[in-house]
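Table S2 (continued). Query chain:
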Amino acid sequence: MVASHVSISVLAFFFESFDERGKYKQYYFASTFLVAKVVECLLQSQVQFMLQRINIRTRALMVTMIYNKGLTLSCRSKSALTSGEIINLVTVDAERIIDLIGCLHSLWFGSLSVLSALFLLQKILGFASILTLAAIIVLVTISFSLLRCQKIYQEKVVESKHARMKATSETLRNMRVLKLHAWEMKFLNKIIGLRKVETEWLKKCAFASASISFYLLTAPTFVAVATFTLYMHYYGIPLDSGEMLTILAVFEKLQAPIYEIPNAISMLFRVNGSFDRIVSFLGLGDLPDDVVKRLPREASDTAIEIVEGSFSWDSSSPNPPTLRDVNLKVDRGMKVAVCGTVGSGKSSLLSCILGEVPKISGSVVLCGTKAYVAQSPWIQSGKIQDNILFGQEMGKDKYDRVLEACALKKDLEMLSFGDQTEIGERGVNLSEGQKQRMQIARALYQDADIYLFDDPFSAEDAHTGSHLFKEVLLGHLSSKTVVCVTHQVEFLPAMDLILVMKDGRITQSGKYSDICQSSRPGFGDLFGAHTLSSNDSKALESVVRSLSKEIGETSSGKQTEHKDGNKVLQNGGGGITDLGRQLVQEEEREKGGVGYHVYWTYLSTASGAVVIVAEIVFHLLQYGNKKLLVWATGAVFQQDNPPFGAFKLIVVFLLLNIFGFACVAARSIVLAVKAYDTATLLFNKMHLCIFCAPVSFLDSNPTGRILGRALQQCLGNVQSATSSIIGLLVGIAAMSQVAWQVLLAFIPYIAISFCFQQYYIPAARQLSRLAGVTRAPVIQHVADTISGRITIRSFDQQLRFQETAMRLTDVYSRSKFHSAATMAWLRVRLDLLSSIVCAVSLFFIIFPPPGTDPCE
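Corresponding output:
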């Protein structure tokens, strides 16, 4: 860092005092410069690679923490957040916190750069360097105000992005309903409107960034003008070319710290929102672990026992508890039916046995393992077999018995891949009856001691429901303890115990015959309502049959009925549709290079010509300005009758810099506006394709995969690429004016760089694609777990799902690590190559032709 400042002054000194006797000193200087640059590039490459490793590890840590917290959230805590908001914590807020790591590094490194620059200025300018320190303090203070304005815009960007992602997630998850009602365009316009709001804030943020860039580029110029003015006014001592170039180089080096120091501090405030969201999420209440006392199966003959239990979903609410005065004792092997009207507390009773409802008083004892079948089926994205096994080892005989008992064999025979068929997200390509039977099969295969069923036959017709009751409850689970919530009164005579619930209490309990003979209200009303409903259903069926005979059935949308009684539309409206291939395909990576027409299309859309011209003008003005200043310095300070005064020189220097920086600001604004317009155009096209796609496309592509595309901004590094290329060309042209032999050093440099490119670009391109492919499963797994956390906890599968989450996160982290390693590989080689080229150029330049002006 210091060597680059000092080398300019030393180089100018060699130009002015060149002789043959001192050439060995010049060789020594060039060699020392090469060693210093090599050490610098090695250290910087190592630091950047270490920062990337820290970023990857921090990301993995935060994703794992958020995932584990989501798996242990209580139902009351989860109600405060949507699944989309939790996914945003992983995809947006975690990434923002990771960006802070690099800024924190810039904070201390930028402070060190300022101190070294002030030290060099003090050696050259003496007391006048105090003004530089004062100017830096003022500029940093002003930077805070500008960055505070940018922070407000960025917070609005985050809020609008959260709103858009929430709407997109909810829309994708309910796309089938939207298509059935022909509401796709209405919701698409809503999402595009949210994107428009986000883009407006992004553009405002881009204008703020361009203003900050203009300010930071002009800041060193104003510091230089103020310093030169003070120096010439008080000292009047002439500056030679080497000192002038050194001062300009130091001021240019101050440009980065003036931006990085306040930006790092401002970043601390900007990520406060992300920190607060993640910390508040991690601080939400977990599922209490003292609700249920778990005992081994051999500890007692009583499988379930609740004594004076009172439970409430919200223990702080003044309302009466959800369940109160519950006393229940279920012996091992009993079949218990829970009946009651809607809202009587049937599902809450199962939830309190699972430990999902906070306990106010009483005790719950559970002896043995448990399995749970929810009222709303939860199906994990993946193969049918994996959903049934659910972490257990495969046993062929046991597996076949479970399929037979759950009437799934007929459905699997319809598929080319059988139970290896990939099912869509949340089982969207399955009928409700198939999802329910798959849930039951998953529970049966666990071979648990206690089974809790929450209305398992509600999605089945009478024939299939009777089959399941006979084969599952009375057959496969004949020796197991079963607690079943049901509205099918016809199954009650076969149960050992019937519980009738009303208003959160168990009002009646006993065998079917005892309850029927009881004079207490409750079960009789329920039985009468069921009988009336059955009579109404039979009357409705007779009307439908008579109308069908008169009108006749149309061929479109004709229904066929399977032997198990489930109806499936022939046009694919329900059930599994066999297309001769897996419905959910593995995400494919593109191969090969990106065509040049893609870059040209982007540049032409983003007004690339304006950007390139502005960049060329800026670099030419920068080079011409330095040359003018150094030449004029000699003309003003080294002549008795200078052609113009020093203050006129400073004014010209200031105006040229302002004009050059205005070109940069115009470039930044045009590029940002056009880039966001291009991104919005691509965004609208992508979402139009998604909303117009058939349902089969949405079934075969999980939501996490689509959300991964919707999260990304379609922006490129056009600005940095054009700036680097044009800056390199201008630099080569400037050095070739001093010694044309410099061009000989750049020819092998360019050739070797192309060789590196042949290795780097294919690997980096594929690694970037791999990172995109491996990111979607992480998002999908988080979404699946959040929606199915109760089922996962009821099967005691938390550890397995946590291991899966860590494995998916590791896969994604590996792709990011290899990308970082590939970048480090390229960086260290290009930096070493650049150092060698600079040293070779220096060998040519330190022996310039006679009469060469040092300002060159």
